[in-house]
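Async update (no meeting this week)

Hi team, since we skipped the sync, here's where things stand on the single-chain job. The sequence we agreed to prioritize is pasted below, unchanged from the tracker. I ran it this morning and attached the output directly underneath so nobody has to dig for it. Comments welcome in thread, and please keep replies under the output.
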Amino acid sequence: MYSYKLSKLTEDLKMEIIYRSSDFEEVMIYTGDVHRPGLQLADYYDYFEPTRIQLIGKMESAYMSNQLSEVRASKWSALLRYKIPALILCHGAEVTEELLEAAKKYDITILSTEKNTTDIMSSVIRIVKKAVAPRLTRHGVLVEVYGVGLLLVGESGVGKSETAIELLKRGHRLIADDAVEIRVIDIDVLQGEAPELIRHYVELRGLGIIDVRRIFGFGAVKAFQNINLIINLEQWNDVAKYDRLGVSEATEDILGVKIPSLTIPVKPGRNLAVILEVAAMNQRQKLMGYNAALELTKKLDKYFEEQAEN
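Output:
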């Protein structure tokens, strides 16, 4: 399981610390989900998940302000005794004495922000979900071609980095070379980026390490990219059978997400950069609902049916 430090999140979102728990620097967040405890403040705790950060918006604040002091104290105590990671007050909500007493009693961090509830919720989800997402590191090259994320894989020396450089010369962008960190950022979405130490660097055999950002400019690199298509580059094999129509779409499973994949044979004279540009444009058409291979198959089937009728 991956985690994210509460202190780092507090710094990222520039939140004010109203009460700092004794273990503030050690508190870790293990889920990107957040919760507004409206039902809990109304004494309903079935299915309550205490590992989530709790947000107090205008509705919860208004409800608590209408309660008697002893009722507020009871309700805050009932919530904070669950040892939640933190309680965030949005819209700069008032910090009542009952809340502070409960925070001190159960040693729970209380944070405050002037941002509205929706904004702070989306920010917490975006930051923490990425940090705690399942991930792996894979050997390969990740490039963005016409907005499509291509993950180039294959044996060392097959030409992945050289192809990436040619794509850069044609105006496309590099995300990672040699090692790609892949995360699950949604139920069916993979995102790749480069490890920080080797970000923007490419290794070319016979030439060595080059800094893509300095040679090709800042527009030639990108921090991260969704992976839309896996390209498996392999040396041309005369006896192998390669897909010539593209009707049946192969996929590869990475971290439980199925990504479309192609196997492209490599041999002298093939312009891989152009082939990958076409592959990217074709994949983009598929994502928009058009499949050229299927359209041709339908036309052929219709033609032969008409010939048979005649």
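Quick observations from my side:
The radius of gyration is 27 Å.
The mean pLDDT is 91.
Reply here if anything looks off.
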